[in-house]
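[agent] plan:
  1. take the single chain provided in the ticket
  2. run structure prediction with default settings
  3. attach C-alpha cells to the ticket
  4. add a short note for the reviewer (M.T.)
[agent] executing step 1
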Amino acid sequence: HIDEKRQQSHFTEIIKKIELSKQESAYYEALRRQAIMNMESDESTQGTKHLKALAEITRLRQACCNIALVDKTTTIESSKLSTFLEIVDDLIENKHRALVFSQFVTHLALVEEALKKRGINYQYLDGQTPMAEREARVKKFQSGEGDLFLISLKAGGLGINLTAADYVIHLDPWWNPAIEDQASDRAHRYGQSK
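[agent] step 2 finished; step 3 output follows
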C-alpha cells in the first residue's frame, strides 16, 4: 500500500491498497513458492537460517513494490508505480509538494527514472548522500526547487526539516511504524497550517 499522509495531530492518513496485476500476482506466487523450497532445502545452522528467511521475505516485499527490484529483465509493469504516478500527477496539478519515502534505495531509483521520463522536478536523498550535498538539497527543496523529495527511509528519519511539503508518501510500509512517523515528521512542525 501507499500511505499518502500519516495520522498525527494535524495529519490525515490515507491508505491506498494496490492490487497486483495478474502478471504480478503470478510472479509473486512463483517467487513465494521458490522461497519456501529454498528454506525447506536449506541445511544451514539455525542462526543462518533466520538470515536466509529474512532475505527471502525481503525479496517478496520488493516484488510487491516492483517486480524489477528482483528481476531486472522483467517486462511486467508495476501497479504500485503506476498508481504512484497518478497520485503525483494529481498532487502537482493541485500545487502540492510531497516527501516520498521508501525503505529500498533501489525502489527510489525506479521512481526517479519514471519521474525523469515525465519531466517532474524532484530532489533526492539517501544514506550515501554526503552531508554538504544533503544540506544543499534540503535548502533547494525548501526554496521551491522540486515538486517531490525522494528520500530513503533510514536517511530521512531524523535531522532534517522539510516543511515545504504538505504531503508525505510512504511507498512501502516498514516493520517499525515509529520510523515512518519520524520520517513523516520531517514535513510537520507546530504552527503549520498546511
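[agent] step 4 note for reviewer: Residues 35 and 41 are 10 Å apart (CA to CA).
[agent] ticket updated
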